[in-house]
Amino acid sequence: MPALQQKAEIIRSEKLTDDICRFTVQAPDIAADSRPGQFVMVRAAEGMDPLLRRPFSIHQVRDGGLLQILLKVIGKGTQALSKMQVGQHMDILGPLGRGFTYNSKHHHYLVGGGIGIAPLLFLAKQILKKNEPSTINVLLGARAKDEICTLVDDFAGMGLEVKVCTEDGSLGKQGLVTDLMAPLPDENPAMVYTCGPYPMLRAVVGVCRDKNWACQVSLETIMACGLAACLGCAVLRADMNGYVHVCKDGPVFNADDVAWL
Amino acid sequence: MAVEQPDMKISIGSLRLKNPVMTASGTFGYGEEYASLVNLNLLGAIIVKGISLLPRKGNPPTRIAETACGMLNAIGLENVGLERFLSEKLPFLQDISTPLIVNILGDTVEDYQQLAKRLNEEEKVAALEVNISCPNVKQGGVAFGTDPHMAHAVTKGVRQHFKRPVIVKLSPNVTDIAEIALAVEEAGADAVSLINTVLGMAIDIDSGKPKLANIFGGLSGPAIKPIALRMVWQVAENVSIPIIGIGGIATPEDAIEFLLAGASAIQVGTTNFINPKATEEIIHGMGTYLREHNIASIRDLIGRARHT
Q: Which residues contact A182 (CB under 8 A, 6 or more apart)?
């Protein structure tokens, strides 16, 4: 489906922590076409500095043409966006890229770390349309409690079992999200859907290989256009002989299609 | 009498364009990528991603970095190669009424000649833009664009094998861009386009390393506009073939500045990434400018700032 550009009015702005916020915008045309794992490019500011749009995975799509993004302040682009107010308009381009593929044959493991949890909520909702909650396990990791407590509630509110760990032990078990995966029974066939920082993804892929679980990863890179024009978002292919592009070939890849360095 | 419908048509050699706004190579894919966002049939010309004889993988990541009012790129000329361009990309472009300009690049004069020869057979290819200036590849491109003799040789080679207009895209990373422009004019170029990206770099102070894997990259975006404008002015002073201005053009006002400096047409590059509708907006805005200033033809703007 083709990408669209919309000036989307901000309907709601939630501050989840000091540096994480969730925006709900009215973007009916983009929302109608969006699938879990796809992303949008958001204009950071009206001026020329910061210049480039910023990519965000689609966090949720809600009735009434609403679309949500989850934003963590990491640079001047996200800083500028985080200050936007209800009633202002976000310039959004999307939906972009290839999302997650899912069916009813697998047991579903949703494994998210930090801000990478963002696309998994939308995915869970879509899987639940045709599957029982018991077919889904949600495993979430973060540095500390405040980063994820709202998101944990969102998953739990859908009737899902959520296992949580934090690096500082402030919520759930102290440790990494892969620690939550290791003791799980080998439900087969299983599909793991994961998104988070690169070292976490690499570790999750490692566990999946040990357990012989299929795995889809959502990757994040710097990108300028999101439209496969700039070719800036290259990632090394599994055969190490050339590149795939996160914006067009991804952002969701089968874990075996990309190199893990 | 007030100008109601200003004449936006311009010529580049024998090429007639409905307006002077083109898409810069490497910022607009092969056209199809932008089809849902821009009315491709409104554009003056579409210049597609640079094509080499064989596919190129490009540079390792990280390939891009944002800088103040600009961005650095070291894509490394990744492209699908001539054959896949012809079989996979050209069919879509056949149905677009806008003239297609194919940007070509190579390692040797013979590469450029082969590309020119094969593309000459494709009626849809209205003109070639010869990339002699990309600063990202350690061999090939950089040498042609920085040496008047090599630039001359490549231009002449393409000229011999391509019967429609040949545009040569110039690098700003030279001491005297007018000298290169003169050399390619003398070799038979129908036009020059300038500027390509400005060589630069950025360092990540947390890792202590260059942000780009290639260390150096090409700076583009609004940050380079004054440099580009100055170079268009200098080249206009020295050559009589048409000039296509490129470099940080984001608004109709930017485009008009380039025409006033001596450009006959302009290309929109990095701005396509940020505002996919920019080309359409610039075409519209230039028309408005002509009406507001009661100027009958866009051609009346070309070089006007030079005559005062």
A: A207
